[in-house]
């Protein structure tokens, strides 16, 4: 059959028009033909002749039926395919820096590796190309000639995820990433490397900044308390970045307005380092004080725009009241209490259960009967606190009424709740079933086990921004408290954070593992709640040199993180507190009545002190966000410090309006332009984990030898119909002609 | 049921029944030879990883006395066990069950002192700290450590207050900025769990000096008792009715104080 129809072994015969009816007809016809052939052999000559004509008619019919079944020969054709090569161009703000022989970094990239460039053309000839551009988002570039720079941040993680989605299923010979390698969004190195790996193609990274950037001093980070006490010294730590200035000195000047507070001189000991510079401020008046710190040297500065930074401190005279309830005497309690002792900004009252029964030991109380039940007597007493710390304590120590009061303390009063993880707080059937479960920024699991080995705790990007342990640059600074803190045992990873929660610290699980959050917080109603999954932080204090006060700074900052926002009857805040010219700032606030219930009908007078235009009135609108009653969105265009002043139109019980204020800073220079060096280590690491290679832009031409085509194939089904051939028609006609002639010549007609 | 508060304002004892049960248990344990006896003179070196983060470790300070014959830093380890048994019963403090030799610490290296922020030191003779030991102790105190010294008076040993006087001489040299003075009857160490209305530790043997405190910026980092509280943990004696109970109570107060101040 195969030889007859010329079907090779890799081909297959199918009947495309096969139906039940045609199949039955064909089978019946073939059976009839076989029967007739048998009759032809056995009958008399005349009957044989008749039988022959009948056979010929049937044979023609069968042929017609078979033709109607559309017999077709199918073959799977393998088509060789050309590999794809993607170019991803970084067009973020840092690529506009003009340090490439008077050209911007992006212009240099387009000259060397842009569409039409000679080296790029060679790659285009060999591969099918697809182009992307990315800054804080990835876009496919249909017309690569129109690549333009932006002022946006760099999101390498997002870029890799985008490339992975858009190239999935294609035979990718590789992805060429052209960037200076400095992510300013989603900076988690491990996640970036993981996303790069998931592309499942080699990533060839091209360093697009000078190998040897110009010498530079810059203000890397500033750390100061969010709140300071009046007439009390507060420490400000500035991290000055230095590159290429070994042996040189620079002046670091701290100013408040036009007044120079203090000047320090620093000396660079290495080619590349971060120099911590400590200042002390002693603000004498209440309210917001803003400062400027700048670094200058006599030598030429290649990047002069990153030499100063503004920051502000809110000076308060009223002590923040903290209530701390602990389940049993333990060092965590003792060290945590000690962290706040002697600080004018805080007053701590604490209760610790000392027996399995209800015996308690109270500290910091002012009355004989204060907290004698282990908890404030009523809402009025509880609402007098600004923050409540729940230590390692079983939920059963509280009554349902007390837990409901805590819930309202956060939701209505706008208080801060700090929940410390531990064996008792994470016990099954504990707080997970209580009114507090809704307040906390994570969902309780059925059971919790702490990690049984000591692991480092590291700040997230938000944690670094909050400077909870002072300024920290993991790239430059190996002496930061974060870098030298001992690993901790008893860590509870918070795998199930709620959508609005923000992680401040994570557990460093080691290379390649995702880092689960261990400290996180969220707004709830008018207040804030924070979960600390570190059951014992005191070893940080006990196992680090005594002159290191970062443990105290960590806990105070933690409390201040929680307290910012609504904890008074009138609140206002600005977010983000530091933006760059052109960024949006949201002013939000709330007004509550005497019972701390939000009053959306209350009117407020909202004003803003600007750096250049004096004080202007703002028209707030009703806020749709939970916990706020009014809001206003601004896009400031002038750099400087902006102060928001709000007061209620209606007066309170004493006949006075309530007042509150907030501050935000508009930076002259975006974070994109602060870090100007080539991040070669990250680019090399990306190339290494994906099987690619790293080259500098000046060696872009080498890529054509480094990239290997990827074997890729596509399959196509090829069909060869057998039924519409002339031979079939001729056969049918021939059979009918022979049948007619047989009848004629045999005298049967 | 209302909660009872043991605080600076007023304190309250545990029930008599509970106390008797605890004391009986402790005595029974002490009577079993070897059951709780420490393997003394074991190495006191430890690693930073040995630090117990949740449980309270009652560490014994291994130091060198001036005379080798009376070098008894590890004397009466089984008395400690009596007391720790009481502490477990009377409070909800998670007390470590580490053996005596595992709890021993030395001021000669950092790895050892990181084992616990609470050190207990006894002796009946003179001692001098080396410069290195002073440095380590100073850092221990500044990081939040607490040291309790108790003058042990043994039959046929040194005059009753040699250790006491050595402690008073040596400790100020560890922290020149700190102040060594009588602890004072109002000190929370006498009222934080049980109330000692007279404001001093129970007396078994020893000199007549006052209980002393070493104060670093108002925080008492070291406490010295001249009255051999530790030996009173050994057993209840007909000659001193109620002394063992009082000594247990004092020890409990010291531990609660160290964990809360």
Would you write up a description of this structure?
The complex is a heterodimer of chains A (749) and B (261). Chain A has 749 residues and is α/β, with parallel strands linked by helices. Chain A is elongated. Chain A folds into five domains: 2-77 and 717-745, no CATH class; 84-213 and 677-711, Rossmann fold; 216-316, Immunoglobulins (Immunoglobulin-like); 323-563, 3-Layer(aba) Sandwich (Rossmann fold), CATH 3.40.50.880; 570-673, Immunoglobulin-like, CATH 2.60.40.1930. Chain A has a nine-stranded mixed sheet. A six-stranded mixed sheet of chain A has the order 5-4-3-6-7-34. Chain A has a five-stranded mixed sheet with strand order 9-15-14-11-12, with no helix packed on it. Chain B has 261 residues and is an alpha/beta fold. Chain B has one domain: Domain of unknown function DUF4159 (Rossmann fold). A seven-stranded mixed sheet of chain B has the order 2-1-3-4-7-6-5. In chain B, strand 6 and strand 7 (219-225) form a beta hairpin. The longest helix of chain B has 18 residues, at 243-260. Chain B starts with 15 loop residues before the first helix and ends with a helix. The relative contact order of chain B is 0.16.
Shape of chain B: globular
Instruction: Please count the beta strands of chain B (DSSP E, at least 2 residues each).
Output: 7
**Which pair of protein chains has the largest interface, and what are the residue counts?**
A-B, 46 and 40 residues
Query: Which consecutive residue ranges of chain B, at least 5 long each, have pLDDT under 50?
Result: 1-48
């Amino acid at each position: 059959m195969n030889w007859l129809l010329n079907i090779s072994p890799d081909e297959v015969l199918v009947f495309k028009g096969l139906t039940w009816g045609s199949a039955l007809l064909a089978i019946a016809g073939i059976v009839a033909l076989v029967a007739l052939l048998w009759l032809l052999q056995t009958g008399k000559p005349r009957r044989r002749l008749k039988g022959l004509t009948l056979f010929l008619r049937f044979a023609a019919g069968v042929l017609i039926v078979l033709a109607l079944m559309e017999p077709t020969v199918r073959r799977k054709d393998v088509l060789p395919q050309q590999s794809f090569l993607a170019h991803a161009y970084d067009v973020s703000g840092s690529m506009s820096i003009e340090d490439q022989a008077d050209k911007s970094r992006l212009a240099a990239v387009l000259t060397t590796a842009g569409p039409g460039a000679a080296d790029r053309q060679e790659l285009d000839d060999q591969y099918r190309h697809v182009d992307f551009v990315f800054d804080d988002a990835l876009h496919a570039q249909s017309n690569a000639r129109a690549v333009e720079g932006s002022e946006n941040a760099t999101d390498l993680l997002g870029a890799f995820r985008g490339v992975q989605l858009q190239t999935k299923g294609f035979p990718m010979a590789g992805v060429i990433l052209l960037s200076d390698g400095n992510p300013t969004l989603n900076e988690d190195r491990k996640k970036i490397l993981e996303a790069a790996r998931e592309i499942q193609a080699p990533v060839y990274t091209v360093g697009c900044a000078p190998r040897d950037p110009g010498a530079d001093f810059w203000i890397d980070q500033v750390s100061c308390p969010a709140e300071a006490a009046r007439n009390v010294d507060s420490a400000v730590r500035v991290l000055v970045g230095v590159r290429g200035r070994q042996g040189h000195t620079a002046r670091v000047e701290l100013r408040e307005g036009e007044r120079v507070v203090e000047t320090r001189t620093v000396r660079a000991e290495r080619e590349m380092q971060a120099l911590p510079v400590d200042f002390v401020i002693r603000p004498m008046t209440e309210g917001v004080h803003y400062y400027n710190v700048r670094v200058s040297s006599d030598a030429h500065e290649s990047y002069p725009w990153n030499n100063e930074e503004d920051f502000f401190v809110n000076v308060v005279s009223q002590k923040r009241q903290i209530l701390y309830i602990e389940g049993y005497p333990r060092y965590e309690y003792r060290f945590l209490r000690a962290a706040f002792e002697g600080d004018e900004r805080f007053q701590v009252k604490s209760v610790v259960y000392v027996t399995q029964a209800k015996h308690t030991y109270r500290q910091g109380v002012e009355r004989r009967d204060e907290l004698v039940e282990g908890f404030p007597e009523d809402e009025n007493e509880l609402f007098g606190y600004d923050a409540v710390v729940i230590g390692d304590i079983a939920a059963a120590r509280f009554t349902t009424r007390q837990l409901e009061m805590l819930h309202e303390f956060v939701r209505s009063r706008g208080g801060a709740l700090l929940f410390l993880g531990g064996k008792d707080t994470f016990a099954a059937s504990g707080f997970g079933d209580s009114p507090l479960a809704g307040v906390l920024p994570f969902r309780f699991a059925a059971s919790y086990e702490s990690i049984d080995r000591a692991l480092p705790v590291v700040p997230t990007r938000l944690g670094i921004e909050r400077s909870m342990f002072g300024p920290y640059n993991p790239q430059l600074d190996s002496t930061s408290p974060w870098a030298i803190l001992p690993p901790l045992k008893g860590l509870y990873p918070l795998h199930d954070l709620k959508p609005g929660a923000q992680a401040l610290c994570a557990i460093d699980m080691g290379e390649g593992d995702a880092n689960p959050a261990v400290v996180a917080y969220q707004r709830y109603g008018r207040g804030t709640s924070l979960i600390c999954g570190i059951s014992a932080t005191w070893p940080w204090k006990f196992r680090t040199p005594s002159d290191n006060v970062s443990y105290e700074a960590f806990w105070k900052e933690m409390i201040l993180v929680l307290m910012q926002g609504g904890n008074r009857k009138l609140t206002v805040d600005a977010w983000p507190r530091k933006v760059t010219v052109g960024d949006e700032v949201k002013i939000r606030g709330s007004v509550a009545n005497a019972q701390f219930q939000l009053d959306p009908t209350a009117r407020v007078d909202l004003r803003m002190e600007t750096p250049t235009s004096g004080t202007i009135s703002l028209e707030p609108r009703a806020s749709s966000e939970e916990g706020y009653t009014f809001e206003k969105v601004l896009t400031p265009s002038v750099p400087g410090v902006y102060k928001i002043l709000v007061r209620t139109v209606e007066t309170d019980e004493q006949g006075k309006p309530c007042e509150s204020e907030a501050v935000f800073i508009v930076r002259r220079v975006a974070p994109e332009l602060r870090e100007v060096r080539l991040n070669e280590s990250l680019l090399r690491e990306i190339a290494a984990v994906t099987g690619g290679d790293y080259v500098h832009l000046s060696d872009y031409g080498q890529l054509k030898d480094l990239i290997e085509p990827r074997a890729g194939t596509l399959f196509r089904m090829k069909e060869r119909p057998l039924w519409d051939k002339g031979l079939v028609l001729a056969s049918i006609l021939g059979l009918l002609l022979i049948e007619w002639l047989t009848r004629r010549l045999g005298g049967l007609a | 049921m209302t909660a009872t508060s043991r605080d600076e304002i007023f304190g309250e004892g545990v029930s008599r029944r509970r106390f008797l049960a605890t004391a009986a248990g402790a005595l029974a344990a002490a009577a079993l030879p070897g059951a709780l006896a420490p393997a003394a003179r074991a190495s006191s070196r430890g690693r930073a990883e040995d630090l117990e983060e949740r449980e309270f470790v009652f560490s014994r300070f291994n130091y060198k006395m001036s005379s080798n014959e009376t070098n008894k830093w590890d004397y009466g380890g089984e008395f400690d066990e009596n007391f720790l048994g009481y502490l477990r019963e009377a409070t909800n403090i998670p007390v470590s069950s580490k053996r005596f030799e595992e709890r021993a610490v030395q001021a000669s290296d950092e790895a050892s002192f990181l084992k616990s922020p609470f050190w207990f030191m006894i002796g009946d003779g003179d001692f001098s700290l080396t410069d290195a030991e002073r440095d380590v102790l100073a850092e221990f105190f500044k990081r939040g450590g607490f040291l309790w010294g108790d003058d042990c008076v043994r039959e046929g040993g040194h005059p009753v207050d040699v250790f006491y006087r050595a402690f008073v001489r040596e400790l100020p040299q560890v922290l020149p900025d700190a102040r060594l003075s009588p602890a004072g009857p109002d000190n929370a160490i006498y009222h934080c769990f049980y109330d000692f209305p007279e404001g001093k530790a129970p007396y078994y043997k020893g000199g007549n000096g006052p209980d002393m405190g070493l104060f670093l910026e108002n925080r008492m980092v070291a406490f010295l008792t001249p009255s051999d509280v530790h030996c009173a943990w050994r057993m209840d004696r007909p000659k001193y009715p109620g002394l063992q109970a009082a000594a247990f109570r004092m020890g409990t107060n010291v531990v609660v104080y160290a964990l809360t101040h």
